[in-house]
Amino acid sequence: MIIKADGKDMDTILEYIGNDYGKCLYIYIDLKKYGFTNENFNVWIQYNKNGEICCIISEYYKGIQLFSKNYNLVANEISEFILQRNSDVIFGMNEVINRIKEYLPEFTEELGFVGHLTKSIDLLSNEPYSASLDEIHEIVELVVSDENIGKPYGFDSLYEQYYSRKVENFGRNFVLRDNSTNEIITHAGTYAELPELAILGGVITSIPYRGHGFSKITLSSLCNELKSEGKEIFSYYYIPSAKNMHHSIGFEEIGIWAKLIK
Fold first, then answer.
1. What is the pLDDT of residues 128-142, one digit of tens each?
2. Which of 94, 148, 172, 209 pairs as cysteine with 256 (C-beta 3.0–4.6 A)?
3. What's the rounded Cα separation, in Å, for the pair 110 and 222?
4. What does pTM read for this prediction?
5. What would the pLDDT profile of 35-52 be if each residue is shown by its tens digit?
């Protein structure tokens, strides 16, 4: 049974998540940030036949994240729910996504990692900087050009998300510009922040500029600023080069992360 959650369920959900917030970062941060007051963020609780919680479901815009502490969610019911919500992207730990993907053949699976910054390795550079609100349009044009990072969301949805995060101090954007053309060639941002932690996202370098370490320098600059504020830092990454880059600045994997894309 899937029941929509409200304010009275907050403590129950956070107790269920416990110290496993690294496995459901967006659910955890969005709950802490928005509670149940944001029209673009909704939460449901799935109960098994014994009345026990077996899954937490969150929806932010048209993306859904799933967290099942013991991976014992009722898969067919969750899958029907996802289809009813007409969701574009589904996120979760690989053990969770494995339970539902057979019911969602129209979705394509992509595997990656969720990483945690555990070491302090600084690559100092003065060139990357924190972008202003006026630069969001140009940033989104770069991010949405990538088939995996931004294109599934579409420009309008991604722009709204980036813009609202910036206005609400819920996210920030570090960029690197080409000294000769002044175009933004690299971006690394935070997709969600709390005073105590942050999730990195949207790490991308324009295709003609790849292979020169620009993403690594920009990401490291962003991490340096976040560390100076005392934040715990997490990131999601999907390709070997991104994994190597994260390792080179001090990340270790929590586990395999999966997403299903329509």
1. 999 999 999 999 999
2. 94
3. 26
4. 0.83
5. 998 888 999 999 999 999
